[in-house]
Amino acid sequence: MKRAAGPAPGRAPAGATTLGDASGGRGASGKLLSAYVLHQYDWSESSLILELFTRERGRLAVAAKGAKRPYSQLRGVLLPFQRLQVAFGRSSEDAEVHTLRSAEWAGGAAMPGGSALFAGFYLNELLLRLLARQDPHPGLFDAYAQLLPLLATADEAGAQAVLRAFELVLLREIGLLPELDQVTLTLQPVRPDASYLLQPEAGVTPAAGGAAALTGAQLVALQAALQHGSVEALCAACAPARLALRGSLRAQLQYHLGSQLRTRQVMDGLRRLLDPRVPAR
Q1: Of 106, 137, 184, 188, which sees the most CB atoms within 10 A?
Q2: Which three-class secondary structure state does DSSP give residue 74?
Q3: Cβ proximity of 252 and 130 under 8 Å
């Protein structure tokens, strides 16, 4: 799944409208949107193109004119992992690229650091690669907003549980995750003491055991947490199954993405650099 290329630097993107006063104001509808910056790249010497994840309208491409200027009020606001309130200039609802009119910090935790920063960029890349534009997923937005601060404060084991929780929510939201409490082919309930595999094409299948196998009890707990909607409950359900889930969900994501994520390559490279005994993945 490839993302469409952005507009050439220095040229107005298709569908963009006049910015007007970038220091304030709201869009034509007067409605502010909740948003996170997933990615940004240069549009011209003074402006940026942003990929935003909004609660109300999903993933959007946005032109931030003048955002790179030293005196721009947007400079210190358009940061990743910070919840924003944004408004756009006049444009049609289905415009390819919207024009940012205002952006304000909406509060929240400080930007994560260290390994949590890489993990946060991994979440952002998943959203960029797997979400279609203009396709709202408010439940996924809320999970992202709640999991980011958990990721910033968790230890290594806790961070792995947070990542697995987000991957599960994402796959479920975009319709790529089977019901975990039943065998996909037969629709029979899983047995708590039996072992199962989560496979990209076959879904939940019986397994003879092994490191990548999940128990029926773990699958039932994961499904119950997904249905409940609590990210804390989902992280708790992921914690004892995190090692098996890592391989299963990595295969699931790889199958649908078609290529490895850049952030995953960087993270694996850093692990091998810090510990040469870590094998290449």
Answers
A1: 137
A2: coil
A3: no
- The 3-state secondary structure of 17-80 reads CCCCCCCCCCCCCCCCEEEEEEEEEECCCCCEEEEEEECCCEEEEEEECCCCCCCCCCCCCCCE
Q: Are strands 203-206 and 58-64 parallel, antiparallel or unpaired?
A: unpaired
- Angle between helices 156-173 and 115-130 in degrees, nearest 10: 10
Residue 231's CB is within 10 A of a number of other CB atoms, namely 20
Label residue 35 left, alpha or beta by phi (over 0 means left) and psi (-120 to 50 means alpha): beta
DSSP-derived letter for residue 129 is H
Give the pLDDT mean for 209-238.
Answer: 92
Amino acid at 23: S
**Neighbour tally for 139: CB within 10 Å:** 13
Domains of the chain with CATH codes: 1-108 (2.40.50.140), 115-274 (1.20.1440.120)
Residue 281 DSSP label: -
Question: What DSSP element (H or E) covers 278?
Answer: none
The β-bridge relationship of strands 97-105 and 58-64 is parallel
CB contact at 8 A, 83 and 36: yes
pLDDT tens for each residue of 44-103:
999 999 999 999 999 999 999 999 998 898 988 999 999 999 999 876 676 789 999 999
**Angstrom distance (rounded) from CA 88 to CA 213:** 47
Number of other CB atoms surrounding residue 247 within 10 Å? 15
